[in-house]
Each structure stands twice: as structure tokens, then as C-alpha cells.
């Protein structure tokens, strides 16, 4: 079995006239949490959207579980048991929390058919999801919406979970709750690719790290090694953890 569940090799992405990714090489190790770091505008979100087929790679190869998905469209990629939580969370505001969850539960056509044990586990991770189960999702706070977005992505077991900046704009207490949730997900063996700006978040959770700059991965290695090297942090990110 390949040690890497997801690999990008020489991936370029153009959006209209703009050349955003310039040959991205990225490996996401199976069963680990890989952090994707970098300054604003480095190409992190574009990388995630290219993996998910929301933007098509203009050059290079994307491989998931030994299958080339470079030219696959988004529904085909989702069918491979990959879940994506975008930066804007993608919540359906007019639907209830329950209805948002049910939409993601492909094996259930009504709430009673959802995996009860898994729901109970999700409620333990994100109590607000249970508390506001029958409330319109649009009425939730920003932190509660982020909890719902992640809960919805894991309503069924996933091979790969891709999340874009889960701590953005959240209060410290909610960030700690989110860190605990991802730690539990890691313990189940779920492979996770996480874009994050909160360096403490990255330090506490990451197994591996890739740092992007100007549309390329300029550093890859262990998260611990980066966390312990202040000179490397400053040269790559302009700050120290």
C-alpha cells in the first residue's frame, strides 16, 4: 500500500488569464494530518480547489489512492469518499442543522436512517450541532456554523478530509474545541489535509507540513521540526511559532 494517500506532482492551475499554481508537489501521508501553511495569496486555497476539481489543473498529475483524478470532476472526486470544507463553510442557511447533515449522509434518505452511534460521537465533538438540531443553520453563530461544516463533512466515515482554515475568526475556546475534534478524528485513522493560518493550531495538530509561497511548495517535512526551528519559521512564514 502506498504510504501517501494523495499526491500532487507538478500541478499548475490557471484561472482565466492568471497563472496561480506553478508546479505544486505535495504528498499527504495516509492516516496522518498534513498542514498546508503559507502567507496570504500563496496558493493554498487554489491547491485545495484544484484537488477537488473545482478548478482544473492545466498541467501535472493528482493521484488519490493510486487513482489519477487530475481530470475528474467534483462529484466523481466526492464519490471517492473525500470530503471538503471550504473557507466559506458552504452551509445552507435556509435549511435546519438536521437537513444540512442529512444532505451529506449519502446512505440515508431521512434522519432516522443516519448512523446513530456516529451521530452521538459527532454530538460529543460538537454539542452545538445537537443543541440546534432543528434550528435554521443561518441563525447559528460563526463558530457554530464552522462546527456544523466539519460535522457535516464527517457524518459518514471519509478516506480524506480537506479543510480550509477551520479556526478563522473563531474565539479561543471554540478553537480549542476544534483542535480536540481534529485530534479525535486523527485517532480514528482519518487522513486530513488542513490549511491553517493559526500557527498554534498547526503546531498542536500537524504530523507533516508543507509550506507554500508564490504558487509552489517551498518546504515539506515534519511539523515538529518546523515548530522547533525559529529561523526556518521566519524565513518561510515571516514569523516564529
Please provide a written account of the structure:
- By secondary structure, the chain is of the alpha/beta class.
- The protein has a 6-stranded mixed beta sheet with strand order 6-7-8-3-9-10, with helices on both faces.
- It has 2 domains: 1-81 and 158-241, P-loop containing nucleotide triphosphate hydrolases (Rossmann fold, 3-Layer(aba) Sandwich); 89-157, no CATH class.
- A hairpin with a 2-residue loop joins β4 (57-64) and β5.
- Helix content is 35%, strand content 28%.
- It has helices at 44-51, 74-78, 97-104, 116-125, 127-131, 142-153, 172-187, 199-205, 223-227, 230-237, and strands at 4-15, 18-29, 33-38, 57-64, 67-68, 82-85, 160-164, 191-195, 208-213, 216-222.
Amino acid at each position: 500500500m502506498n504510504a501517501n494517500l494523495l499526491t500532487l506532482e507538478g500541478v499548475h492551475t490557471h484561472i482565466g488569464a492568471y497563472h496561480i499554481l506553478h508546479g505544486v508537489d505535495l504528498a499527504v501521508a495516509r492516516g496522518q494530518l498534513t498542514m498546508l501553511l503559507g502567507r496570504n495569496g500563496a496558493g493554498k486555497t487554489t491547491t485545495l480547489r484544484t484537488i477537488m476539481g473545482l478548478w482544473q489543473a492545466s498541467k501535472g498529475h493528482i493521484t488519490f489512492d493510486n487513482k489519477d483524478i487530475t481530470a475528474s470532476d467534483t462529484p466523481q472526486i466526492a464519490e471517492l469518499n473525500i470530503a471538503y470544507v471550504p473557507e466559506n463553510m458552504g452551509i445552507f442557511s435556509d435549511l435546519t442543522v438536521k437537513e444540512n447533515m442529512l444532505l451529506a449522509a449519502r446512505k440515508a434518505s431521512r434522519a432516522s436512517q443516519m448512523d446513530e452511534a456516529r451521530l452521538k460521537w459527532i454530538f460529543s465533538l460538537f454539542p452545538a450541532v445537537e443543541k440546534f438540531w432543528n434550528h435554521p443553520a443561518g441563525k447559528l453563530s460563526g463558530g457554530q456554523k464552522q462546527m456544523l461544516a466539519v460535522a457535516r463533512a464527517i457524518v459518514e466515515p471519509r478516506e480524506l478530509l480537506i479543510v480550509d482554515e477551520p479556526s478563522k475568526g473563531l474565539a479561543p475556546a471554540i478553537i480549542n474545541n476544534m483542535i480536540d475534534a481534529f485530534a479525535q478524528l486523527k485517532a480514528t485513522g482519518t487522513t486530513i489535509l488542513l490549511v491553517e493560518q493559526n500557527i498554534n493550531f498547526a503546531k498542536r495538530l500537524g504530523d507533516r507540513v508543507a509550506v507554500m509561497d508564490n504558487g509552489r511548495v517551498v518546504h515539506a517535512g515534519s511539523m515538529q521540526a518546523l515548530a522547533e526551528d525559529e529561523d526556518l519559521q521566519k524565513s518561510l512564514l515571516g514569523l516564529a511559532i
